[in-house]
Each structure stands twice: as structure tokens, then as C-alpha cells.
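Friendly challenge for the regulars: who can give me the C-alpha cells for this chain first? No prize, just bragging rights.
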Amino acid sequence: MTGIERLQAKMNVGDGAIICDEYNRRYFTGFESSNGVLAVTKTKAVFFTDFRYIEAAKNTIKSAEVRILEASHSAACISVFEKEEIKKVYFEAEAPYSYCTAMQKAMPAYEFVPGDDIFASLRAQKTPEEIEYIKKSQAITDKGYAHILEFVKENYKKGISEKDVALELEFFLRKNGSGKMPFDIICASGENTSRPHAVPSDKIIAEGDFVTLDFGSSYNGYASDMTRTFAVGHVSEEQRKIYELVLEAQLSAMKQIKAGVRGCEIDAIARNLFAEHGVAEAFGHSLGHSLGLYIHESPNFSPRYTGEIPENAVLSDEPGLYFEGKFGVRIEDIVHIKKDGCESLTHSPKNLIIVQ
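First reply, four minutes later:
Bragging rights claimed.
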């Protein structure tokens, strides 16, 4: 069953849907482009795109009719909806404001209703084919981590920077099968590791530093995501203690992850453990997020997500502790949600590695 067929199964006669977001377009059509709009009814689906993509779209898309975009997106959608007597249109409320208002102004005959929850729920439950794409993407990422550990081991005494490591890692991932990077690589060392989304800098990696790497690959458009923190030369007792606590939180949460559990309940496992050790204030982000075509999808493991996690979702499990001006630790795996538990798709070691 294609993504479009799954969407149509949720629609009633008289319903329409307009898909313009690049990731939703890619999900429902299997075609990646910078321009296009997909109009869907209960019985019909038409993808419109411009001259640059029309030939490739016709050769790629099998789940929808493909037509050249000759006028505006609104005119294209009207040409489909007016023949189907559409009354209500599901629309991406998170699309750019100017786009939303222009479409509604151009299509006053239709009732626009938010469709983001429907689109997100379909994308949340991955098909077996999507799971395989993510597994292949993560395999490249795991291979990259093994490579970068050796790179740091061989070069840190010569003097290498965070930027050097990030560049070497991206080159390796690309060379070994990754498509475009799903997000900018994070490489932080020493006191910079206290910043969860640190940008690689010219700082030279030194003995006694923690090094945190947060990176991913992509395969056929599907993203992977992994964070590992390792040490260079040696660690203090405090560093070791915090590392082991973060690892305990990560593993404790993973043991309880399964379909039907609320996202906030999984987040609370790690958060409560940190509170017991008096460091809850050092964990300032959520425990995890979904991923697929986009690196941050829904649902989530967060204090605010009270919904149930569906079977066949793929989420990250990434607790972290960050101490300003000192250091931070984050450990992240991605997991495939199943009825009775979860399967980690990440296979890189999580024990504290000290590169020497």
C-alpha cells in the first residue's frame, strides 16, 4: 500500500488534500524536487511540477498522475478538485504563512483544515522498506564512527581541530555511500561539549578532552542519527562518573521502549534517574525524536508528548548531561519500535572509549 493509498484510506468522499512540503511530497510520491504540488482526492492523485522536473517525475512516480505545472499551485489543485466536487481540503498548516494565505485566498470555495496530524501519523509508522533504508543509512554512520576513532588516534598528537574531525568524517560518510548530510555534523571537544548543538570550531583537541560527535548519513533520502562521546588520553573520575550515568539512563530508557507507551513516560525514565543523582538541571532537552526522510519528525520522547508511540516508528534515545564551562556527555542510538520492545539500529560501541 503506497503512502497515497494510505492517505486516501483516511479520507472521505468530498475531501481533498494539498501536499507542498518537500518532505511530504517526497514521502507520498517517492520523488525529490525543489518544486511541485500534489493534489489528492479519495480516488485521484495528481502531481504537478515544472519543466525542470517533468521528465524525471514521469519516469519515477507510479502512485500518481504527473502533469506539467502551467500556472499557479492553486490553479493546478482547482483543476483536480472541481471535477471531484471537493468541499474540504486538508492542508499543511506548517507551510510558509504567505503560501497558506495565498492558497486560501485563491481557493475561497473550499474549507481548509489542518492536515499535519494526518500526514505526520502516516509518516510516523515506517514500512519495512523504509526501515531497511534507515538501517543502511545507520550502517554507514556506524562505519564512520569506527573510522573517525582511528583518525583521531593517529592524528591528535599532531594537533587536529574540531573542524578537521568534522570534515574528515563527512568526507568518509560521503565516500562510503551516504547521500546528502541530514544535518550539519556536530563535533565538540573539551568545554565545548557542554553545548548540545556546538558548531565545530578551530579548537585543537587536547588530552583530557571529551569529544562529542553527533552525526548521521542518508540512504535513498532516509536519515540516520547517532551521538557518541569519547575521551582523548585520559579522563577524570568526574568525567567517568557522568559518562556512566548517561549510559545508564540511555539503557534504562531503552529497556522500557515499546509500542503503546507514551512518549513522556520514556522521557521520564532518564529524567528521573538524573534527578535522583541531583543533576536533573543539566539535562535540558528531550530524550528523543522520530526520524525518517527528515531528521526531526513526530512522535517524540519528551515531557510534553503525551501521545502513544506507534509500532514501526523509529526514534532516537539520546540522554545527555551538560555542565557549562566544564564538559558534557551525550549518547544516542536510534531504535525501531515494536509491540513488545524495540530494536536498536545503532551498533557502535557505547562503553567509554579513551583514544590513546
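The mean pLDDT is 97. The two ends are 52 Å apart (CA to CA). Your move, everyone else.
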